[in-house]
């Protein structure tokens, strides 16, 4: 069903659903079996070994056990891999379970504990690296310092673009070049494959908190990494052994979310540009962070993205107290962490998502982040206008 000539909009609707018609069904089935009948001892043992060492699918007609493989999850992975132009994808229980699996596979498990981390990163990722809880040791740096930060024992370079929360763009190709063969992981949560496909720019892994845009409706926690089949084997092995699996119900919802992902992202992006333009004219706003309004981002934006996305941040002229007033004054926006859903959210990164980040890397207290949803732009602007006055 897929072909090179299909656009991402078409792929989003059809990818990972290839076998459904053969079974006489139209909607995605949910398989909740925790265990699977074994044809015989030999075949069962062989299949177990295949899955526990990261094989793509069960060997001889039995998936054995649901921590190793599940067809509903595998279909979602296949769909997501298509959208990312990747050979494979591996799904996890959350975005952070994905980050953990990547660190275990590339660093701890290879005896290459050093990680080069391009800041700014999602607060949870920054925190995980900073604690060294998984046996890793992080060097934080800017884009142009990556090559000098690489060591013999560097297992992974990690970056996020657009970055959280100030929407800075990082050139993936530039980091890949500086990494000189060390695997590069790009957190693609904010852009989604609709706007950016990191593997096309040389990245080894494209990671999502699928909790955000991919699910899109604020009702499922999940994570996924798109990569080569070779890397997927390593990630699946970590997943089978450590157990950070995605539940089939979550996989079903995420796969369902893929179908509308391009439409949601494009529409929210259109609204975000209008909201960002309006915010830029308001006295209460000192600065708007939005790649679509920032001339410094234009080069990287044109080189690796198909649009600036739907996340906007602002610096309040009135500092923290103005940020407090805005977040508690809105009615249509919900004051809540997370992002990428059908409804608009507003939050204060320094006090919430970036609270565990060390003070020198924490966003300043006058910054507020907005996730623009699918409401009409005029209604969102009216809500902000009321809260700002
Ligand atoms: C939310 C988020 C994560 C963590 O994902 P969870 O699903 O919450 O574990 C990682 N990276 C980015 C950019 C995020 O926004």
TrEMBL record:
GO molecular function list: cystathionine gamma-lyase activity; homocysteine desulfhydrase activity; methionine gamma-lyase activity; pyridoxal phosphate binding
Gene Ontology CC: cytoplasm
Top-level taxonomic group: Bacteria
Family that this chain belongs to: Belongs to the trans-sulfuration enzymes family.
Designated name of the protein: homocysteine desulfhydrase
Catalytic activity entry: L-homocysteine + H2O = 2-oxobutanoate + hydrogen sulfide + NH4(+) + H(+); L-methionine + H2O = methanethiol + 2-oxobutanoate + NH4(+)
GO biological process: cysteine biosynthetic process via cystathionine; transsulfuration
Cofactor entry: pyridoxal 5'-phosphate
EC number(s) reported in the record: 4.4.1.2
PANTHER family tied to this protein: CYSTATHIONINE GAMMA-LYASE-RELATED, TRANS-SULFURATION ENZYME FAMILY MEMBER
Pfam families (alphabetical): Cys_Met_Meta_PP
Keyword Lyase: yes
Keywords, sorted A to Z: Lyase, Pyridoxal phosphate
Species whose genome carries this gene: Garicola koreensis
N6-(pyridoxal phosphate)lysine PTM sites in chain numbering: 212
């Amino acid at each position: 069903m897929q072909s090179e000539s299909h656009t991402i909009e078409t792929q989003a609707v059809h990818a990972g659903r290839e076998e459904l018609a053969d079974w006489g069904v139209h909607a995605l089935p949910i398989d909740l079996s925790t265990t699977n009948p074994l044809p015989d001892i030999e075949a069962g043992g062989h299949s177990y070994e295949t899955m526990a060492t990261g094989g793509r699918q069960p060997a001889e007609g039995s998936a054995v056990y649901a921590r190793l493989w599940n067809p509903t999850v595998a279909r979602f992975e296949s769909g997501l891999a298509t959208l990312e132009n990747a050979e494979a994808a591996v799904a996890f229980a959350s975005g952070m379970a994905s980050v953990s699996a990547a660190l275990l596979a590339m660093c701890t498990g290879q005896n290459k504990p050093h990680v080069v981390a391009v800041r700014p990163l999602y607060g949870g990722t920054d925190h995980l690296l900073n604690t060294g809880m998984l046996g890793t040791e992080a060097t934080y740096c800017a884009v142009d310092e990556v090559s000098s930060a690489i060591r013999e024992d560097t297992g992974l370079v990690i970056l996020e673009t657009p970055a959280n929360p100030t929407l800075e763009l990082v050139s993936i190709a530039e980091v890949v070049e500086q990494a000189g063969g060390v695997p590069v992981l790009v957190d693609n949560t904010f852009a989604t494959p609709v706007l950016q496909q990191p593997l096309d720019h040389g990245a080894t892994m494209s990671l999502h908190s699928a909790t955000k845009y991919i699910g899109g409706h604020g009702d499922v926690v999940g994570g996924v990494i798109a990569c080569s089949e070779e890397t997927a084997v390593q990630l699946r092995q970590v997943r089978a052994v450590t157990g950070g699996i995605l539940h089939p119900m979550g996989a079903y919802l995420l796969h369902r979310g893929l179908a509308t992902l391009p439409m949601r992202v494009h529409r929210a992006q259109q609204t975000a540009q209008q909201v960002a333009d309006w915010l830029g004219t308001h006295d209460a706003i000192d600065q708007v962070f939005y790649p679509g309004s920032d001339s410094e981002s234009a080069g990287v934006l044109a080189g690796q993205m198909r649009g600036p996305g739907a996340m906007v941040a602002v610096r309040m002229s009135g500092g923290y107290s103005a940020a407090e007033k805005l977040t508690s004054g809105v009615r249509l926006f919900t004051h809540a962490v997370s992002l990428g859903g059908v409804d608009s959210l507003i939050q204060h990164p320094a006090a919430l998502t970036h609270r565990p980040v060390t003070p020198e890397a924490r966003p300043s207290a006058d910054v507020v982040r907005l996730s623009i949803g699918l409401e009409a732009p005029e209604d969102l602007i009216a809500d902000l206008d009321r809260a700002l006055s």
